[in-house]
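Chains adopt folds. We examine one example:
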Amino acid sequence: MHNSAEYGDADAPRADPGGAAPLDRPPATEALVRVVRDCLADLDELVNRYTGEVARFEGYQETVPHEDLRSTAHTSLELLLRLIGDLPLPQRLHGISADLGRRRVHQNVPLEELLQAVRTDFRLLWTAMLERIPPEELPALTRGAVRVWEAVEFHTVRVHTAYLDETAVLARARERERAALVGRLLASEGRDQQLVAQVGTALRVDPEAAFTVAVARLPRQQQRLRAAATAAPAAAFAHVQEHGGGTVLLALRSGASQLAAAPGGAAPPRWLESVPCALGPVAAGLARVPRALRAAETVAATLDDTTTGPVTLRDAWAPVAAARMGELGPVLAHELSGALQDLPTHERKRLVSTFTAYARTGSVSETAGEMYCHRNTVLNRLNRLAELTGCRITSPAEAAALLLALHCEAEEIQ
């Protein structure tokens, strides 16, 4: 039992745990103050009742030590009683609501059970007050019931807010840790198996699963990639972060064992089909993600604002090769496409557009449809291009060389 003098007015300031009065309300009645002091005198008994009930909560049984539960019950009940009775609040009670919310986060107590435990205070305190009030003062106590509810709600709101704030802080810390681990993996060669395992644990994915790797470098493309990741199916687990000056997407393939959905490589996920980005080869496990990323980054460097969907190395081999030819690029461009420089701009553009369409489709009819002209017109343009460059357009090897030369020329102009 506690001596009631311990809970007297003394010289402690009349303040609440947050530094401001919880509500602007009339002072507590003498009858209410009397019963509050009686409850404070029997605080150990109230703590025993409280811990006996809350200790049975599933979320508390394995995570909250008994002494912790008793200590927080003692301070919380004292705080509530002082708020109800307008009694002074010692400094030691300031901030205990927020401390309780933060501590329960680290003890993995579910929020629902925490709030249930906190709101148990109302029933416990009201019952204790009814037991200690003389019958003739019961009407006065009943009128003070709202003060009990207000005090408990005041405490509950602060516990709840602190719990959510601490949860957000921990989530940001985990996100920073996750991003740091993934960043280390992306910058590596994928040979550190311990790092690979750590990334798998941080992302909560199987390190041996198959992954899609995509990169966007231009602002509009980065925005589209982030939006697609946000809207991706939950099963895809789309992780996005900034790396090497670009936005990198790492997503699970829906059929981890099916790495080649189509000849030449796997098709992009359906939710990524209309997103302008560079797509690396499917990574068979986290250890191969860095290699897939290098390919995607190389492709991404060749993309511009006209890109409308995912581009693979297979699609962008010519501009990628042109970018890597160095001083040999201008030599090849001059040798194969130099004669085109003397043509009027509109004619040169028409010939090159027809050729690139034909190289992409392999069909005169499809090229004619794409260029909105007769197939004979396509043939005439291709023949004209062959005369000027000396390349046989129907020869795959020579056509590929001319494509590369045109991209080298474009690279030199840039």
